[in-house]
Amino acid sequence: MAVETRVPDDDCEVLTGWGRTAPTLARVYRPRSPAEVAAALRAPGARGAIARGLGRAHGDAARNAGGTVLDMTGLDRIRAVDARAGLVDCEAGVSLHRLMELLLPLGRFVPVVPATRYVTVGGAIAGDVHGGNQHTAGSFGRHVVSLELLTPDGEVRTVRPGTPVFDATTGGLGLTGVILSAVLRLPAVETSLMRVDTERARDLDDLLGRLAGGDHRYAYSTARIDLLARGAATGRAVLTRGDHAPYDALPRRHPARRAPLAFRPARLPAPPPYVPGGLLGGASAGLFHALWHRASPRAAAGRFRPLSGFFHPLDAVPHWNRLYGPGGSVPYRFVLPYGREEVLRGIVRRIAGRRPVPPAVLQRFGPGGPGPLSFALPGWSLALDLPAGLPGLGTLLDALDEEVAEAGGRVQPVGDARVRPEVLAAMYPRLDEFRALRAALDPRSVLVSDLSRRLGL
Predict the structure, then answer these.
(1) Which of 30, 226, 259, 286 is surrounded by the fewest CB atoms within 10 Å?
(2) pLDDT in tens, 42-82
(3) What is the pTM of this model?
(4) By percentage, how much of the chain surpasses pLDDT 70?
(5) d(Cα 441, Cα 217) in Å, to the nearest integer?
(6) CA-CA distance, 110 to 113, in Å (whole number)?
(7) d(CA 22, CA 331)
């Protein structure tokens, strides 16, 4: 006799994105198996359901006001690892942090490293996240060999690259189905250290020239712009580039020679629940970044740094999003095609003229993914986290949206919580293609999020 899987009564919780703005109330259900996920989709309620991972998306892609949110972190089995072939088969709720812990001792690493390692595999695929190696490795979806997708009709599909469903799912914000598991292709590494080169750029033009002239020599490359600088120094930055350190490159007496693949991330005390003014959102942020710029070497080559310090320095601080203060933060991430550098210069000047000053990270992007909602395109990407209480913030970002769209660029949907639907449509000309495929997969509109309602997806 078949046993029916029943969805238990759920707890209502107030949810936000990582930016801690615009909270909404939803029924949160924590499935422990694919069968329980399927049961939840059979009875999602009037407001539908959406999957959620570790809550690191800044915007409203993983929230569902008045509806159901499926916390997928209970599906966290690592089903198989083939270290020789460089493959891992894992459930969608496994975090990149856990993959690093498991894979590094085997000489393997995750293929794409976003700004935090506390992201689930399912979330990384649904957002098609990118890291400092986007110019060489592309975004996360490029490294997915296959995935299991539970569509709202109850069917579990094995989906592979080169198909419309796969393309729409990578970057599809969880709206084509619930990702249950994935097989990932993994790069090989010899140590858990990075060999890092650092240099200062005197202004934005100097920075663009250094990035364009040297990025091809490095796997990872990012530049942190000091937006406190104005005038002739506008856009000055510290450029950090690196590669995985080979074992033979370690000095003879380096302690890592005894345990070259050890992974021991630092852990600092969490900030208090209330940080008056915010250390990253007030005037102190500008001072911090100016001091950080001056403390960085003008040029340093071949320094060894632990993986966690190179990729995720803020992950050492639990709940570091509190550092923006009680008002939270609003991310703004966009990419502009090559050849539109004058638009980038204008945006940097406009933001640098405001107070308080946010941090900003500039990267060179290579080709994006094949999906209709793929964020990346060959060009310049700028990422900022702005204090939510910044005067005139909404007006400023609306104006920047128009500039970015007119220049052929786009904002990143997975981190957004405020772009207007008509502007997003101008940025993503294949949006109707995505809507049509989603309607075919989900004719009852079971999968719904605050983002999908806001943007009419």
Answers:
(1) 259
(2) 999 999 999 999 999 888 999 999 999 999 999 999 999 99
(3) 0.92
(4) 90
(5) 43
(6) 7
(7) 13
